[in-house]
Structure formats: structure tokens, C-alpha cells
């Protein structure tokens, strides 16, 4: 049996998210302050949705769940991947960075992205119901591009607000369902270049370790165990598209069970849209026992 671990990205946050590892929570409080957790538990929701709070909170929820899950008798992990921000949860799970190192990096990354959003506001919209070829209609619009290739019929466009709006209108006219996203910036686009440059020296000195199982990176949609390739992907992550569809389709034939670890069920829903039904969403600590029982009964652990 082979497992794939998948970790959600920004947008999966919700008030009252669970942090089931008390040791990690105490470590995070020293770095972030106790007021951070008040925002997560009490809101307001629009503050939690801001890049700084949402990215850190989603990582904390995913990392603490994975740490608990890793203490159980798991089958071999064939691969791990994360959608956008979730890629850093995957890096942590694979042992490339410690919990504290990953948290400090995500904090720095979120601060740089928040600043880039303030300096150069952007927009993003999800587009459902169209094939990739139909996006040729927006190629002539300057300042907009595809940020996420999520499924064969689910994409995200990103860029200048006016350009994203114009592109959305064209795609809606072709029959697409266009949903503006509640984000502050144009993630995975050149508008994040200032944040990328500020992070570059930080990434260059990160003490990365070789992953204990293969990682699939958003930038390349390819498997790697190479520290050099991981560092290169981190350098380009904020300005390049997320090739999630290609990652899932490449992995699917070799995976017996997918486990989405963290808040929300976004990735499980995407898998279903691609005809992949063997996905479990692990959002809270009580789900770990249910998952381990399923593994014991179905896979003779």
C-alpha cells in the first residue's frame, strides 16, 4: 500500500481551527504572541483571512495534525505535496525543515507577501467549467495570467485587478463560472516579485535537509529528493503557477490512499472532480483514530 499526503493552501482557514499539538502551540506562541491564537479562535474573520494570519494558521493546523498522525503505524508514504502555501507543510512533514524553522520561514514569507500586497494590490478569481484551451481568449490582456491549474476544469487567474476583471468577463462569456477570491494580492504572478527578492537571501541560507519521502513541487509538478531542486522551487514559488492538476494526475496510478491534512476539504473535492475517490480529509485530532482503524481493517497494518 502507498500513501500520498496532501496539504491545503490559503483559503482553507476557518475560525476555531484546531491546533492539537500543545508543544507546537507553545513554541508558536513564543514566536507569534498569544494574541495570534485569539484571532484564530475569535476573529474577526476578515482579519484571519489576511495573508499573514491565514498562512501561518493553516500551517500550524496542518503541522500539528501531521505530527500526531506520524506517531501512528502508517504505511509507507509514497509522496507529499501541498497546494501553494501547503507546499511548506509538505516540506515540514518530509523532514526538510524543523517545525520552528518552517514556522519562521512562513512568518517571513507571509510578511513579505503582505507588504507586496500593500504596495501593489492585485486580484485573483477562480474559473470553473472551462478547459485549458478556452483560456486562449485572455492571452492578449496585459497583466493577467493563470495562477493555478487545479483540475482539468478548475483554474485561478491572477494579476492587476482591472485585468483580472476583464479576463473574467471574457471567460464568463464562454460559459465559465467566475468567482472572485477574497485575497489581497496577485499570488503566483510577477506582482509578487518584490516579495520574492526579499525572501531570496533567506531561502539561500535555509538549512534544508534531504526529504525522507519524495516531494512534488508546485513549480515543476515533478518528484524530487534533491535539496538543490527544492531550494530552486522555493525561489520561484511565489511568481510561478501552481501545477496541481499535473501533480495529482502523475501520482494517481501509484497511490492507494490520499490523506488531506489540515483545515477544509478543498483538495479532497478537487480529487473527486478528477475521478479520484480514495481520499480522506483529516481536519481534527479525533479523525486520527478513525483513520488508523480504517488502515488496520483495510490494509492489515
Question: How would you characterize this protein structure?
Answer:
The chain has 301 residues and is of the alpha/beta class. It is 46% helix and 16% strand. It has twelve helices and ten strands. The chain has helices spanning 22-32, 34-42, 45-48, 51-69, 86-93, 99-119, 161-173, 193-204, 227-236, 244-251, 266-273, 286-299, and strands at 3-7, 77-82, 123-128, 144-151, 154-159, 177-180, 215-216, 223-224, 257-261, 279-282. Strands 2-1-9-10 form a four-stranded parallel β-sheet, sandwiched between helices. α6 (99-119) runs antiparallel to α8 (193-204) and α8 (193-204) runs antiparallel to α9. It is globular. The termini are close together.
Write the layout of secondary structure elements.
Blueprint: E1 3-7, H1 22-32, H2 34-42, H3 45-48, H4 51-69, E2 77-82, H5 86-93, H6 99-119, E3 123-128, E4 144-151, E5 154-159, H7 161-173, E6 177-180, H8 193-204, E7 215-216, E8 223-224, H9 227-236, H10 244-251, E9 257-261, H11 266-273, E10 279-282, H12 286-299
Parallel strand pairs: 1-2, 1-9, 9-10
Antiparallel strand pairs: 3-5, 3-6, 4-5, 7-8
Assembly level: single chain
* Helix and strand run: EHHHHEHHEEEHEHEEHHEHEH
Mean pLDDT: 93
Q: Compute the CA-based radius of gyration.
A: 19 Å
N-to-C terminal Cα separation, in Å? 10 Å
Contiguous runs where pLDDT drops below 50 for at least 5 residues? none
| Largest sheet features | 4 strands, parallel
| Spatial order of the strands forming the largest sheet | 2-1-9-10
What is the approximate shape?
A: globular
Percentage of residues in strands: 15-25%
Number of strands: 10
Structural class: alpha/beta
Number of helices: 12
Percentage of residues in helical conformation: 40-55%
